[in-house]
Amino acid sequence: MASPWVPLEANPALFSEWCAALGLDRTKYAFHDVFGLDEELLAMVPAPVEAVLFLFPLTPATEAEREQEKAASDDHLLWFKQTIGNACGTIGLLHAVANSRARAALQAGSPLATLLDKAPSLTPEERTRVIAESHDLQQTHASLAAQGQSEAPAADEDVDLHFVAFVRSASGALIELDGRRSGPIVRATDVPEKGLLSATAHFVQSHYMARNPDAVQFNLIALGPAI
């Protein structure tokens, strides 16, 4: 197994830089803070939102649920298994770009475009090897992990925070993409075309936050148009 990476900070500017460094046209897409879950604050996020990254604390309850839930089968979704410790930020970013319209804004031949073009023909295990062996991913992750506003923990530190991504599938389902599960998870159906952020906010509030009301380490970051 590959050595663990230093965790990424939940920082939209760093996430935007990650994408730009690997080939996303930054004049078209960027990441934005979600400052709260009520409708007025959600409406402040540049729309349309293409994907949402969610940071939450791991608990015995979330770990038990992860072992029990069954993944959905959808050939249109690209899912990456996480085998590198603390790489959940990069895995979440891969899921966000790979399964949204932002993918069309990747520069041809860029590291991210090359990886995502190759990934559909690979098994989940083969995809993990491609990620582990990608110098571009490793270097970009390491560079941005060192640029956060807070002091980054050591790579071998046991971090109890985890990133997942939420996207809207072609059939209108709210999909949670978590590299530590066995595949994509359907969280809701019949999500309106422009309703991803609202559906995600409702789900994380009722599913994650309600179960851990004393925790303060929740964070939502949205992928949307550059402003």
Automatic annotation (TrEMBL):
One CC-aspect GO term: cytoplasm
Site (Transition state stabilizer) residue list: Q82
Gene Ontology biological-process entries: protein deubiquitination; ubiquitin-dependent protein catabolic process
EC numbers: 3.4.19.12
Alphabetized UniProt keyword annotations: Hydrolase, Protease, Thiol protease, Ubl conjugation pathway
Site (Important for enzyme activity): D178
Keyword check for Protease: yes
Pfam families, A to Z: Peptidase_C12
Domain spans labelled UCH catalytic: 4-225
An MF annotation (GO) of this entry: cysteine-type deubiquitinase activity
UniProt-listed InterPro entries: Papain-like_cys_pep_sf, Peptidase_C12_UCH, Peptidase_C12_UCH_sf, UCH_AS
Catalytic activity: Thiol-dependent hydrolysis of ester, thioester, amide, peptide and isopeptide bonds formed by the C-terminal Gly of ubiquitin (a 76-residue protein attached to proteins as an intracellular targeting signal)
Active site: C88 (nucleophile), H162 (proton donor)
PROSITE patterns per the UniProt record, alphabetical: UCH_1, UCH_DOMAIN
Family: Belongs to the peptidase C12 family.
Protein name in UniProt: Ubiquitin carboxyl-terminal hydrolase
Source organism of this protein record: Malassezia equina
